[in-house]
Recover the amino acids of this structure.
């Protein structure tokens, strides 16, 4: 299976999932839409091709799973396949490619299907803010939300209010917590957010 491009496997996975009885709801609707909207079909094909190309680049010379087609047609991967077809935001396409590469090489651990729905509720700036908060290494002592927003705003050249909006959204999505008026960065990092962030990272 190592010589088979991810694009070919992804195509098979998507087509297989469309044909399965348990997929009758969502995928039947999609197929009916394809018949009446060929432009949408072409757009989705471009998204799939882009993510597949990115995933192949990330996999490089790594060994792919022997049962890769079985892995890619499992219900565990369904939300990811849907997201790959639907979302053309480049920041998220990078994440889809990272996840796809991990599944293809057996490196995806502790994956939750709801990671995908959570990510799709994020804007690119939310991903930047989550990455910033989870990757700050310095000991800042006790902080508050505005302190954190100041740091991200300065480091990423993003308007502070936009950062605060993102932090609010990340708290609502259970990716961050706000323990009180003053807290440490560790206290702000929710377990769900740490595990989701880990799933989004490239193969090591």
């Amino acid at each position: 299976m190592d010589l088979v491009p991810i694009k070919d496997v992804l195509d098979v996975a998507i087509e297989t999932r469309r044909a399965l009885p348990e997929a009758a709801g969502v995928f039947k609707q999609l197929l009916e839409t394809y018949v009446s909207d060929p432009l949408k079909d072409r757009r989705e094909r471009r998204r799939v091709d882009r993510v597949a190309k990115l995933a192949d680049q990330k996999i490089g010379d790594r060994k792919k799973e022997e049962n890769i087609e079985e892995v890619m047609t499992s219900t565990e991967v369904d939300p990811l396949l849907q997201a790959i077809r639907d979302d053309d935001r480049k920041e998220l396409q990078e994440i889809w490619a990272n996840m796809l590469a991990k599944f293809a090489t057996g490196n995806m651990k502790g994956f939750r299907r709801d990671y995908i729905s959570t990510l799709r509720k994020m804007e690119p700036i939310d991903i930047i803010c989550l990455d910033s908060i989870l990757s700050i290494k310095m000991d800042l002592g006790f902080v508050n939300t505005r302190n954190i927003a100041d740091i991200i705003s300065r480091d990423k050249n993003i308007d502070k209010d936009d950062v605060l909006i993102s932090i609010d959204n990340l708290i609502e999505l259970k990716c961050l917590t706000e323990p009180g008026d003053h807290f440490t960065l560790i206290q702000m990092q929710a377990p769900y957010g740490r595990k989701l962030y880990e799933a989004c990272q490239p193969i090591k």
The radius of gyration is 19 Å.
